[in-house]
Amino acid sequence: MVNKVMIDSTENNCIFKIRDTLSKEILSTLKENRPIILLCIGTDRSTGDSLGPLVGDKLNFLIRDHIFIYGNLKSPIHAKNLCDTITKIKSTYKNPYIIAVDACLGSIQNVGKIIIENKPVIPGAAMNKDLPPVGNLSITGIVNIAGSLEFMVLQNTRLYVVMHLADMISKGIYHSIIKTVGGKRNITLNT
User: Fold this and answer.
1) SS3 state of residue 124
2) Cα separation values, 66 from 47, 79, 119, 126, 133, Å
3) Which InterPro entries match (predicted)?
4) Shortest CA distance to 20 belongs to which of 180, 166, 191?
5) 72 near 191, Cβ under 8 Å?
6) Cβ neighbourhood burial of 87 (10 Å; 0-12, 13-18, 19+)
7) What backbone phi and psi angles, to 5 degrees, belong to 81?
């Protein structure tokens, strides 16, 4: 189990580091015959908070056995529907393994880095929202600097940074699924 891995999204081997880190987790989960849920959290109404829906959108084609995706640009998972979505997931799947993908704020030297941790993500923390922690594993992309006026910081985050992080995270997830689950397709996609 991975405790905490921080990956610089500008490194040449970023995608492969994400792939290898996630593959270890996915393999052990598949051996337990648990469904894997990619829960992509955020909203398309704020540039800085759009990382999750962008990742979900980029992975919409990733239809595999035991892999289910919630959250994309068309149907984002955000503060208003997160609790209902978690309830739906837990009632639909037996012992789901949830990989939560979300944006976060951090120090200036860490903007553009990706953190993978064996702990839940706490959605809405930057906005002081009272939402439940979610996920067995979290993938967070540091989109901008933390400090004061987080709402304004998220609204004024560069789209380039968010898109680059979304590309790296989605490609890393894709390659980890291909490496572990393979190319077998089914017809289940949840949004």
Assistant:
1) coil
2) 31, 26, 21, 32, 23
3) Pept_HybD-like_dom_sf, YyaC
4) 180
5) yes
6) exposed
7) -125, 5
pLDDT in tens, 148-169: 777 788 888 999 999 999 999 9
* CATH number attached to the domain at 4-179: 3.40.50.1450
Where residue 126 falls among pLDDT bands split at 50, 70, 90?
low
Q: Count of residues for the chain?
A: 191
Instruction: Kindly tell me if the per-residue pLDDT of 123 is higher than 70.
Output: yes
Q: How far apart are CA 18 and CA 123, in angstroms?
A: 21
Query: Rounded to the nearest 5°, which phi and psi values hold at 180?
Result: -100, -45
Sign of CA dihedral 106, 111, 116, 120: positive
Chain centroid offset of residue 183 CA: 21
Distance CA 156, CA 151 (A): 9
